[in-house]
Amino acid sequence: MKKNVLILFFILIISKLFCVGQFACIFTLLNPSATDVCFGNDSGAANIWNTNPLSVWSNPAKLGYHKSFAFGYSHDPWFEDVHGIDDMYLRSSYVSFGWNGIGILLPALCSNGRLGTCMDYGKQEMYDANGNYIGSFSAYESDTKFAIGINTLEIISNLIKNRQLTFLQNCVELSLGYNYDIIYSKLGYHLGSSTPKVEGKSFSTGIGGIFRLSLSKFFEDFDNLFVLDLTCGVYLLNPSKTEIKYPDETQKDPLPWGTRSAFSGKLSVPLSTFTILEYDIIQLFCENIFSFMFSFDESKLETNESKTNGYGFEYTFFDILSIRNGSYEDKDGEIIGDCLGFCLNFDYKKKIQIQYNFTKFPGGGMQETQNKWDILFRTDFAALYKMLNL
Fold first, then answer.
1. Looking at residue 344, which CATH number applies to its domain?
2. What's the distance, Cα to Cα, between the start and end of the chain in Å?
3. Which pLDDT score, from 0 to 100, does residue 380 have?
4. Are 44 and 297 in contact (CB under 8 A)?
């Protein structure tokens, strides 16, 4: 019975955090990207510079900016500081492929034999109506996400090879995306009832768009000194308002639905600005001396009255070390918390990239803060093959 209470407590905490008490499978609202979480828990809908496959959770339109092959994995231990709770985890594992403005997202093996994202509640004990122990099983929920993103102007400019259109594409871009999620729940009980429940199955969809404006590209003189990009994005979560169904019961539980909107910007100072730094060894691993990024996101779930927002800043030095700080605010739930984190990035000639991200974010309930980390591995197989002269 202890595990049942813990799972219920966890769901109540997340329900309060996102003001979504009426929804089922609210684990799907937990952002798997440590990078995006550091800008506020709901952030990332317009952050096109985070090309970790995990970031597609925020907006599938981001796939239009993905290049080559990438693998992302994240790990988030819930209640890690609470004695006696060491088996509740949120894990995500995805791969993405990008080429000429077209990107796709595919789920990878995660945990409990599931693909994509899995919320693992550990071993759960089962009791009958009389309180007699009848066994145990692994309780978990999973979200297997498939997505596609298309950078429309990049595709058109590549097809017709028009110089004027190519210049326009360098200045502005429009990316569109779509995701399809297969959702599975195996909790073993229904909220408010001790009656065992069989597995629940459903699906959810999402539609997103991102518009990018590069102000520095309009003026070649400025482009040599700095690069300034501004983006805005919108994402419609589960617009069809689907429900999760259980074969042996007539009741259906609604899945989360709502809207995410965001505005982001990034200012970079390239190495070419200071010729004294144009050494071959430096150019192998970075393009910029310094970059600054900001992001503001807002989510509206259930109705327009339930709002959360997150914002944050990132300071990056030589494309290697990033320091991030942000804030998350839930006005209805009266929750305000700071997010802090960092990134270590190794990128060799844009051929091979390995990245580690770590963040602390508001935990709520039994612990004030929680930790999350993720990794990114990206490679351009064609360019790597050519570089090695194979």
1. 2.40.160.40
2. 60
3. 81
4. yes
Along the chain (390 residues), what's the average pLDDT of each consecutive run of 10 residues?
52 56 79 91 89 95 93 83 69 93 93 87 68 70 94 71 60 92 77 56 94 77 76 94 75 85 92 62 78 92 71 93 89 74 90 92 71 90 59
As given in the structure block, the two tokens for residue 333 are: 């739930």
**Which tens digit of pLDDT belongs to each residue from 299-312?**
887 655 567 888 99
Torsion of CA 95, 183, 61, 356, to 10 degrees: -40
pLDDT digits (tens, 9 = 90+) for 25-38: 888 888 999 999 99
Structure tokens at 109: 């093996």
Query: What 3-state DSSP class applies to 313?
Result: strand
d(C-alpha 359, C-alpha 314), whole Å:
12
- pLDDT value, residue 305: 59
Query: Which positions ≥6 away from 167 have C-beta within 8 Å?
Result: none
Q: Closest Cα partner for 36 from 363, 376, 359, 368?
A: 359
Q: Could you tell me which residues are beta bridge partners of residue 119?
A: 90, 141
Query: Up-side HSE of residue 389: CA atoms within 13 Å toward CB?
Result: 0
- Classify residue 256 by its DSSP letter: P
Q: Which domain holds residue 25?
A: 2-387
As given in the structure block, the two tokens for residue 151 are 């950078």
Cβ–Cβ contacts within 10 Å for residue 117, how many?
A: 27
Among 37, 42, 53, CA closest to 360: 37
Q: Note the pTM of the prediction, 2 decimals.
A: 0.84
Going by the DSSP 8-state scheme, the letter that residue 255 receives in this structure is P
Taking CA atoms, 186 is separated from 22, 135, 198, 228, in Å, by: 18, 15, 7, 47
Count of structural domains, the chain: 1
Distance of CA 223 to the CA centre of its chain: 30
